[in-house]
Amino acid sequence: MVDESYRTATVQGREVPYDPEQMRKVNEHPCYSEKACHAFGRCHLPVAPKCNIQCNYCIRDFDCVNESRPGVTSKVLTPEEGLDLVRKVVKDYPFVKVIGIAGPGEPLANPETFEALRLVHEEFPHLIMCLSTNGLMLPESIEELAKYNVGNITVTLNAVDPAIGEKIYSWVEYNGKKYHGREAAELLLSRQLKGIEMAVAKKTFVKINTVYIPGVNDE
User: Assign residue 169 a region: left if phi > 0, alpha if psi is -120 to 50, beta otherwise?
Assistant: First the structure.
């Protein structure tokens, strides 16, 4: 039961109205709530094989018995196969509340991502939709993500200094052109920051992930 006397909270000096739907997206998401880790589950749909950047630390591969994470998969699914998987999972495991797309490549570089989001959202509008991205194409994708009620977005932001970023990324491909070195790092960072700002303006929960690389981005 919600205490009606607390309709706003002060966050960084601003009055933020209480939003029960926003709270649900926190309380039922294992990545955002410690309690949710023990009560709710998530299902990742590997529908996005292509990637538009090459991180020097990244090897996209198929999983094995000892490795199962969002960036690797035994099989890339079509959007329709992804929907079938969701149907089976929520039937057998009703505690699963989150459907995520995190790869094995970059979700926003694959049209299959948006088709999968559409299919799942139309049939299961109550499920929390989340997505992990490198952020390069986030600005131009915000409206479509909002259309399918993607309320939780994780952005992998490994550097806020292009001088460090150029040590992390081999290349960045955007609008059919490949960028290298400092130019690639500057482009990626500018798109990431713009996309994050736009997502926050849409009242999307944004989580920042950073791959810790000793000797590169640890200071």
Answer: beta
| Each residue's pLDDT tens digit, 104-154 | 999 999 999 999 999 999 999 999 999 999 999 999 999 999 999 999 999
Give the start-to-end residue ranges of the domains of the chain.
Answer: 18-209
Rounded Cα–Cα distance for residues 198 and 26 (Å): 20
What are 10's strand-pairing partners?
A: 15
Q: Output the pTM of the full model.
A: 0.83
Taking residue 175's Cβ as centre, other Cβ atoms within 10 Å add up to 7
Q: Give helix 111-123 / helix 79-92 axis angle, nearest 10°.
A: 40
pLDDT at 197: 97
Question: pLDDT tens across 18-62, in order?
Answer: 666 666 666 666 666 666 665 678 899 999 999 999 999 887 665
CA distance readout (Å), 128 to 28, 56, 97, 132 = 8, 32, 6, 14
Say whether domain 18-209 belongs to CATH 3.20.20.70. Answer: yes
Which among 201, 169, 194 has a CA at the least distance from the CA of 183?
Answer: 169
Q: Alpha helix (H) ranges present in 74-180?
A: 79-92, 111-123, 138-147, 162-168
Look at residue 95 and give its three-state secondary structure.
coil
- What backbone torsions phi and psi does residue 54 show, to the nearest 5 degrees? -120, 110
